[in-house]
Amino acid sequence: MALALALSPAYVIRPHLGPLPTTVLELVLGPAILVGLLAYWRDLPWRNPFTWPALLLLLAATLDSVFAPDRRAALGLWKAYFVEPVAAGLVIAAMARGRPNAQLLLAGLAVAGTVAAILNLAADGQALANHAYSNVTPPVAVYNSANATALYLEPLIAFALAIALYSDAVRERWLAGGLAALFALADLFSDSRLGWITLGALCLFVAAFHARRWWAYGLAVIGGGLAFALSQSVRDRILVEFDPGSPKNTLVLRASLWRSTLNMLLHQPLFGGGLSGFRRSIEPYRDPNYHEDLIYPHNLALNLWSETGLLGLAAFTWLSVQLVRVALPLLRRDPWRRALAIGLLGMLVAFVVHGIGDVPYFKNDQSLAFWALLAIPLGAASDNQGAP
C-alpha cells in the first residue's frame, strides 16, 4: 500500500491490459487493496464517522455514471476517483492504527510528493537556464498543468508542516520540515496564484496552534511583502487580477464560467452534468466570451454538483463536517495524534481555499491522497498505537 501511495503520480502512465486501459498506479493499488482487505478483514473499520458520507458519495457517483452522457468515460472516473480511493482508505485506516505503519504510509505519500516536486522544479530550472521560463504558462513535468502540482502538494504540505512543528520525534520533525520546504518551493514555482494563497493560508493555520504563532504571522507578512516588492513577476501575476479589462484576468474568466455552470445546473439540478459530462452538458449554456477549454467549472462546490449531483455535493459537505469531528478530539491527545489532527484540518483548509477557483480531488492521485490522509488520522484515533 505504501508503494501504491508512492506511485500516485504514475497514473499519468497509461498502459493497456489487452483491450482494457489502465494505469501504473492502478496496477499496484488494485492488488494492494485486495491483499489489504484479506489481511485486515477483522480489523476493517466498517463503522466509522466517514462510513455514511462515503457511501452516499459512492451512491451519487454511481447514479451520475448511469445518467452521464458518456457512460464508458464516466465508469472510468467512477472507478479511479471514488471506488478505488474509498476502498484504499478503508484498508489504510485499519493499517494506520500502529504508528510505524502510519509513518510508512505517510512516507509513501512523501515519496510521491518528492518525485512530483523535484521533477517540476527541474523543469522550471531548465526553462530558467534556457531563458524560456514564462510565469503565464510555467513549465511542467508529470502533470498537464503546473497548477496540478500545487493541488497535489498542498494536502501533503499541511501534514508535513504539522508534523514538523508538533511531533514528539526530533528526526521526524526535521524530515517533515525538509519535505514541507521542498513541497512549498514547488508550489511557489507553479505560479498558481491560488496556490500561493493556499500555501499562505496553510502556514498561518498550522502556526495558529503554536505558542509562538505571532512570530510566524510576522514572518509571513514580511516574506509576502518582500516577494511583492522585489519580484516583478509576482507583482504582475497579482496586479493583473485588479484589471478587469485584461485578458489575463482569471477572475473575470472564472466569473463567466461560473455563471454558465450555474445556468446549466439550475436546468438539471439533481444529477448535474453527469460524471465526466461537464464538457458536453455546458455547451448549450456556454458564454461565447469564454475561450478556455471547458473541462471543469473550476470551483469545488460547482464541480461536485456537476459531476456527482446534489447528492454528491451533500455527501462531500457531510464528509467535511465529519472530518472536523474526527480531528477535534485528537487535538487533545498525544503529540503524534495532535500533529495528524492539525494536518487533517489543514487539508480541509487547502481544499476550501484552493477550491474557490480550481478543482481539488478530481484526479487519480489527488483522490487517493485525500482518502489516505483522511484514513491515517482515523486509524490513529484508536488506542492501540503500540500495535505493529
Q: Can you give a write-up of this model?
A:
- Helix content is 69%, strand content 1%.
- The chain has 388 residues and is mainly α.
- It has one domain (2-376).
- The chain has a two-stranded antiparallel sheet.
- Helix 5 crosses helix 6 (146-166), helix 5 (99-129) runs antiparallel to helix 15 (364-380) and helix 6 (146-166) packs parallel to helix 15 (364-380).
- The longest helix has 31 residues, at 99-129.
- It is globular, with a radius of gyration of 21 Å.
Question: How are the SSEs ordered, and which strands pair?
Answer:
Elements: H1 2-6, E1 16-17, E2 20-21, H2 24-39, H3 51-66, H4 71-95, H5 99-129, H6 146-166, H7 170-189, H8 193-207, H9 213-230, H10 232-239, H11 250-267, H12 278-282, H13 300-330, H14 335-354, H15 364-380
Antiparallel strand pairs: 1-2
Helix pairs in contact: 2-4, 3-4, 3-13, 4-15, 5-6, 5-7, 5-15, 6-7, 6-8, 6-14, 6-15, 8-9, 8-14, 13-14, 14-15
Query: Can you give the helix content as a percent range?
Result: 55-70%
**Would you tell me the overall average pLDDT?**
88
Tally of discrete structural domains: 1
Approximately what portion of the residues adopt beta-strand conformation? under 5%
The parts where pLDDT drops under 50 for at least 5 residues are 384-388
Write down the overall geometry: globular
As an assembly, this protein is single chain
Task: Report the biggest beta sheet as strand number plus sense, adding barrel if it closes.
Answer: 2 strands, antiparallel
Q: How far is the N terminus from the C terminus?
A: 15 Å
- The helix/strand class is mainly alpha
Report Rg.
Answer: 21 Å
